[in-house]
Specification:
Length: 217
């Protein structure tokens, strides 16, 4: 239930190089756009495993049998870092409904530990739907697990797909231990976490790189 898109050479590797590179991260617009592009690639890959219906298309010169998606998914994201990745998914699933979760790491300034604060979830009915959750960095998995738990209060989806730019082995294991039915689609997988829960080599703080640094309270 894990698809690592870096195992096959593609343009995605170039975009990952650029968003990881300290010399190129300073260009926020490029960082956001590359994150969005990765979302588009993941959307295309997920589309291959969705349900389809047979239909006929009438052209000016005749009819052509085609396959169309039977139902658009629900696209969820964790604010704020997930917005560009969510937009990439939305560019391809352009008739999809969306869900949003406001969550963040609340750090202890003394010992560097953190807990996840989640204040807001807005979501359509999920019963029987395909749920795709965009979270650029899957580190410990704590925020993603909390987000999924909050979303499941809005219904039971028929399938759960998780879209990440970079994932950590530990976070993948934690998420799949809690939600073994989920399918994780990721741009790449790193194996190490810092004591503060950041992925190594990773890329840094995706939210700050997209939108600027924030004050910590």
């Amino acid at each position: 239930m894990i698809t690592n898109l870096s195992l096959q050479n593609s343009l995605l590797s170039q975009w990952l190089h650029e968003i990881r590179s300290v010399s190129k991260q300073v260009d926020r617009m490029r960082f956001r756009r590359n994150t969005e592009r990765i979302g588009e690639i993941i959307a295309y890959e997920i589309s291959k495993v969705l349900d389809y219906n047979h239909t006929d298309t009438t052209t000016p010169l005749g009819n052509k049998p085609v396959q169309t998606i039977s139902e658009q998914p629900v696209l969820a994201t964790i604010l704020r870092a997930g917005v560009p990745l969510h937009q990439g998914l939305l560019n391809y699933f352009d008739h999809a409904d969306s869900a949003f979760i406001a969550a963040y790491r609340k750090h202890n300034k003394i010992d560097g530990t953190f807990e996840i604060e989640q204040h807001y979830v807005t979501c359509p009915d999920l019963d029987g739907k395909t749920l795709i959750i965009a979270d650029p960095m899957l580190a410990t998995g704590a925020s993603l697990i909390l987000a999924i738990e909050g979303l499941l209060e809005f219904g039971q989806p028929k399938s759960i797909h998780i879209a990440n730019v970079i994932s950590c082995t530990e976070g993948i294991e934690n998420v799949l231990r809690k939600f073994p039915e989920a399918h994780i689609w990721t741009g790449d997988i790193d194996d190490e976490l810092t004591a503060k829960g950041y992925i190594v080599p990773g890329l840094g703080d995706a939210g700050d790189l997209c939108f600027g640094s924030k004050l910590q309270f």
